[in-house]
Structures are given as C-alpha cells and as structure tokens.
Design a protein that fits this description.
two-stranded antiparallel ribbon; 333 residues
Amino acid sequence: MLTLYTPLVALVAGIAAGALYVVGLSHSIWGVFLVLCSPLPIYIASLSFNSLASGIAGVIAVSGVMAFSDPLLASVFSIAFVLPAFVLGHLATQQVGKTQEGDPVFLSAADMTQILLILGIFLIVISAFAVSMTPAGLVGTIRSNLNLLMNNFYGAEASHGPDAVTNLAEIVDFWDSLVLGTIIAVVVVSHAAMGSLGQGLARSGGKTLRPAPAFGRLRLPGWPFYLTLLLGAAVMGLDTLGGDREGTIAFVIYLLTGFLLVLGVGFLLQGLAVLHALTRGMNAQPFILAGSYLVVLVFQPFGAMVFATVGFVEHWANFRERFGVDSDAAMED
C-alpha cells in the first residue's frame, strides 16, 4: 500500500543498500562483509514498512550500482542480493491464515528456510549457465581462476619447484567443483543472517509487521534430506565416470555439487535450531550460542559442517523430541 512515507523509506533503503555494495566492491576482506550486508536495508524496509517500499528500494539500489559501477555487477547485485531479499521479505509479511483466536499466522522459520533453499538452487542454476557462456566455460573459468589464486597464494611456480606445482594441481582438482556452490552458499547464509537481523531491528524499533518466528522449532520436511542423498549418490557416480575434469560431466558435477552445498545451508540452520532449543532456559545460553556461532564463522568449513551434520542427522534422530524440548509450543527466539 502506497503511503506518504513509502518513497522516503524506499529512497533511504535503496541508497543504503547500493552504497554497501559499491563501497564493498572497492575493498578486500571488509569489502566482502559489506557486500554480504547489502540486502539488510531492503529487509528492514520490507519487515518494518511494506513490500512496496522494499521493491522501490531495490530498483533505486540497482540503478545506483549501475550508475557507479557497471551493468554486470549491477546484474549480480540484483539477482543474488536484491531479488531474494525482496521475495523473502514480501513472503515473510504475508498472512497465511488465522488462529482460532483470530490472530494472524505467518510463514514459519521452516517455511522461510525452504523458500531460501529454493532461491539458492535458482542462483546456482543462473550462475552456472551465465558463467558457461564465457569463452572458457564454467569449468575452465573456475579452474583457471583457482589455479591463479593458488599460485599467487603459494608462489609454487616461483619458488617451490615441480612437486609443489603437482600438489597445487591436486588441490585444484579437489576444490574446483566446490567453488560455485561455496560462493552461493555464503550468499544464502548472508540472506538468512540479514533477514534475521532485519527482523530484530524492526522489532526493536517497534514497527514490525510480523512476530519473530520460533527459530528453535525449525524442522525441515523430508525433501531436502532425500534430495541430498540422491544428489550425493549422483555426484559420486559421475565423479567416478568423469575421468578428467572437462566436458559435460564436469559441468553437471559442478551444478549438482552446488545444489548439495546450498541444501547444506538448510541443515546448518536446522542444526543451530537444535542448539537453540536444547539450551533454551539455561542461564548460560547466550554464551553457548555466542561460542557456537563464533565456531561456525571462524573455523571454516569445519565449524559449519559440524552443525550441518547435526541438522542432517536430526531428520531421524529427533534430538529435540528425545530431550523433551519440542513440545513447547510457545518457544520463540
């Protein structure tokens, strides 16, 4: 609904989102952080005001990036950051029903996570086919850039001799299929983080359009679990048949591995939800959660893998039910 404040909110959010992205592109480590934070103003506009404001903010942000950068980077910004933020923010504020008392019902944390995973799979497909249109193709582009990165980092050709070059080639062979999925998985995680932060900021400002979802009750349905098993078997089979790292088989391996890593984000969130539920009511919960999130952020990729494994096993282990914390219908984080 268009109100008097919609254009102002959209303008501020759009400028902020575009500025975070453009400024982030001009820096290195901190720049990556700013780029990943760029959807936050759009989430805040959507969750605290309305979807129209976030949509206009997205248009303003993309237009600003195109004016101060180039069309390619603006396209990446719009597809990877602006569009998912608008879709997730819009759906999060839509009523899907009412309780018996007449209170509105919104999509749960599990529903939003599923939508996030679908958007991540969409980003994998778009990215894979976009990069495949380059002269070197998807496989060639990733392997050549990974080779360049490894050589610059280790200086193998300059100072370590043929054995080091051989070892780096083995490293490239191991990591090449993981590059695309890892990048998109990081983007997906950033959307989960920025959406949660946007909800918290909107609530702290007293102008949120929905209550905070109960993160501790996040429970994914069966399809991500079974799809992960199927994709894992397909990747192992194709990797055995593929031989060299070229051609159509390699492209399919890259694509399916990307799907696996995006689905892993869902299990990571479910694993963290298990931790939220099991520590609920403990005096030490803030310290446990802070330490756990620090492990996930710092000890990559192993920290994230630990909680993703917990989330994956939760499908049949039912940790929350076993420890009697899943029956708390009022659970909210």
